[in-house]
Design a protein that fits this description.
The protein is α/β, with parallel strands linked by helices and 196 residues long. The chain is built from six helices and six strands; from the N terminus they run αβββαβαβαβαα.
Length: 196
């Protein structure tokens, strides 16, 4: 695979400003209503997480999607990827991290960028039901899939074929400092509205 220099990327002229590039899809992206079916999973510590499924009739391939901080299966990027993967004849499982499916979880244990327990729990139950498993995480969810697949803590399913992380925050402290900047106040305000 060829290495692409970041200097080769040339966005359209209006998208060369970072805020426009970020906000345009948020405001104008089509938000399809998907026919998810929800399944609740009880965790070994007597808590729960919910997974929204799009099931295909004739395939044994599954893509597992994980959202970012304070997102959910209803987030635009999860909906968009779910729609694309379903159109490509994949089964889709969009995991909602604890407290992100519209109902507060029972325990004090919350999800975070290294919280891989629920992903492992889900795969231990569902991976045997499929021939091929693919993981795709966005932002914080990308941290989770990368950590899960690389830290050696778990025996990975034999049918796990690929892992993808999209917009993964590699340096979390730096991201926190960026959110404190005046120029990023609208993002900070939106995030704090979700978590307070």
């Amino acid at each position: 695979m060829p290495i692409i220099d970041h200097q080769d990327y040339k966005p359209g002229i209006i998208f060369r400003q970072g805020h426009i590039n970020t906000l345009f899809p948020y405001i104008f992206r089509i938000k399809p209503k998907l026919p998810y079916s929800r399944k609740r999973y009880t965790t070994p510590d007597a808590d729960f997480y919910d997974v929204d499924w799009l099931l295909a009739d004739h395939t044994r391939n599954l893509v597992v999607l994980l959202h970012g901080l304070e997102g959910s299966s209803a987030s635009q990027y999860i909906n968009g990827m779910s729609r694309i993967m379903a159109a490509c004849d994949f089964n889709v499982a969009a995991i909602n991290f604890r407290s992100c499916s519209g109902e507060m979880n029972k325990n004090k244990v919350m999800y975070h960028s290294g919280f891989t327990q629920d992903l492992h729990h889900f795969l231990s139950i569902e991976a045997p039901n499929f021939d091929n498993i693919y993981l795709c995480g966005f932002s914080l969810g990308g941290n989770v899939v990368m950590k899960y697949s690389s830290d050696g803590k778990y025996q990975l399913p034999n049918n796990l074929k690929a892992v993808a992380g999209i917009s993964v925050p590699i340096y979390l402290q730096g991201g926190s400092h960026e959110l404190k900047k005046w120029s990023n106040r609208m993002y900070r305000k939106k995030l704090l509205r979700y978590i307070t």
